[in-house]
Amino acid sequence: MQVAQLKRWLWGPLSGLGASVALLTLALDQASKWWVLLVYRLRDEPRTVPVTPFLNFVYVENRGISYGLFQLDSDLGQWLLAGFAVIAVLAMAVWLAWSVTERLVATSLGLIMGGAVGNAIDRLALGGVADFIQLHAFGFYWYVFNIADAAIVAGVCGLLYESFVSSRNRAAKSP
């Protein structure tokens, strides 16, 4: 496959927006994780660090998928999950290049891609995803997450919102 053909497969009118959002998300995610790991040393010295009355930093290594489901303790399992993330990111890049015409969809895909790559890097570098943000209120503690997880959730919400808005618009225009 020639470079020009590959570019047509992976680059469309809003690919620049999606790629920029993905790179920004990836940079923020990795910087925040390494800052928590190197400054607070939460992986080496496990403890809870209160940040605000509703936010703690606490290190949790997630060797599974969302919410710690399907824990894979082997290195092979981490490589498989990282490989799945790479395949998903490539599929989203093709989707972005071929059919995305809305800025919200491009931004949402960029958030998901950046988050997926950030968590894949953790799997390969740390042996699991570094989660460290713990929100809590009134004695209720949410699951521990990271910037990549938040970006993925925001991206999925953006895609869902856009799908509902565009389907409503199509329904309003049909006779």
Structure description:
- This protein has helices at residues 3-10, 15-40, 75-99, 103-126, 147-173, and strands spanning 48-52, 55-62, 129-137, 140-141.
- With 175 residues, it is of the alpha+beta class.
- It starts with a helix and ends with a helix.
- Helix 2 (15-40) packs parallel to helix 4 and helix 3 (75-99) packs antiparallel against helix 4 (103-126).
- The protein contains five helices and four strands.
- It has a four-stranded antiparallel beta sheet.
- The protein has one domain (42-173).
- Helix content is 63%, strand content 14%.
Describe the strand arrangement of the main beta sheet, using strand numbers. 1-2-3-4
Task: Describe the global form.
Answer: globular
What is the C-alpha radius of gyration, as a whole number of Å? 18 Å
- Secondary-structure-derived class: alpha+beta
Strand content: 5-15%
How many H/I helical runs?
A: 5
Number of E strands? 4
- Which stretches of 5+ consecutive residues score pLDDT under 50? none
